[in-house]
Every structure is written in C-alpha cells, then in structure tokens.
Amino acid sequence: IAAVAATPASAGPAEVERAIPNAQMVGEATYRVLAIPMFNAELWNASGAFSWEQPFALTLTYERSAGANVLINRSIREMSSRGAGNAQALAPLRVQFERCFSNVARGDRFTGVSTGAETARFYLNGAHRCDVRWPNFRRHFFGIWLAGRDGAEADISARLRGES
After folding, report:
1. Which residues are bridge partners to 130 per DSSP?
2. pLDDT > 70? residue 141
3. Is residue 120 pLDDT above 90, yes or no?
4. SS (H, E, C) 24-75
5. How far is 85 from 100, CA to CA, in rounded Å?
6. What is the DSSP string of 112-137?
7. Is the sign of the CA dihedral 93, 43, 109, 120 positive or negative?
8. Per-residue pLDDT, 84
C-alpha cells in the first residue's frame, strides 16, 4: 500500500502522458471573447519550462461548441498572419486539418502534441485523430497560442509559457 501511495498520479490527460512520459504542466490560461470563456488551455512538456526546441502538448478544453470549419478557417487565417503563407499556399494543409478537426461541444478536449519542428499529432477526447507534417508547423500553428503579439493574446501566451 505504501508503494502505491508514493507513486505519483498522472498529471496530464492520458494522451499527453503517452506522448510525453512524466509530463509537467508549464502553464494554463482561459481564452475569452467579451468576457465569455471559449476554452481553457494547458501547456505540457517533460521539463515544466517552455522551449520551442522540445516536444510539448497543448490541450484545449472547450467551454462552447464550435464547428470544424470555424476551427480550420481560424487556424489557417492565424497561421497566414504569422508568415506561413496565404490561403492558397496553405490549401494542402487545410486538407490535413479536415482529417484532424471536428465539431466540438462543451467539455470536449482537443490536444495537439508538437512532436518535432514540422510534425504534430492530434487527439480529440484522448482518441488519436491524425498526424500533420508541414514546414515550421510548430512555430506557425502552436504560435497561435504561444506567441501572442499584444494585449490579452500576449497575456494568454505568457501564462501558457509559465511566465506569469
């Protein structure tokens, strides 16, 4: 019994623990639109300190429903604004996203695991959805949440990176 009691419980969602054994939470934040919570975000990695150079997992737990097309369009638009290319250049990535994203409802958990600079694996409620490969995907896609530019966006990014 003492050995069981001394064993730490899994800190993160099961898919995070599978992808990053002994994952530690780096930070967390709630994304709001006009004070209405849209989703809660958590960032996990092996060290507990954020680095673009190491694998990490970003988990979004939705407070509101959203359609797959809304999620895809927003991701493409945000990536484009971060230098990933225009919508036409990102069309092949959109096809990959169509396999990954689905409609989400309140309580759904969507997890992206950045496995390399150009690769990621996505899960919905712990079930594997797809793998993505795209040039500089880590920075362009995960930068949507982790590289906020100003105001509330920058504050959320800093919280997720464990800086505030």
Report:
1. 122
2. yes
3. yes
4. EEEEEEEEEECCEEEEEEEEEECCCCCCCCCCEEEEEEECCCECHHHHHHHH
5. 20
6. EEEEETTEEEEEETTEEEEEEE-TTH
7. positive
8. 92
Burial 72-92 (b: 16+ CB within 10 A, else e): beebbeebbebebbeeeebee
**DSSP, res 10:** P
Sheet holding 24-33, edge to edge: 24-33, 36-45, 56-62, 109-116, 119-124, 127-133
Kindly list the distances between the CA atom of residue 112 and the CA atoms of 2, 43, 93, in Å, as whole numbers in the listed order.
35, 10, 15
Lookup: tokens for 75: 């991701």
Task: Give the list of residues 6+ apart from residue 50 with CB closer than 8 angstroms, or none.
Answer: 26, 27, 43, 56, 146, 160, 161, 162, 163
Which residue is it, tokens 């919570």? 37
Neighbouring CB atoms inside 10 A of 26's CB total 23
Give the model confidence (pLDDT) of 144-163 as tens digits: 999 987 778 899 999 999 99
4 three-state secondary structure: helix
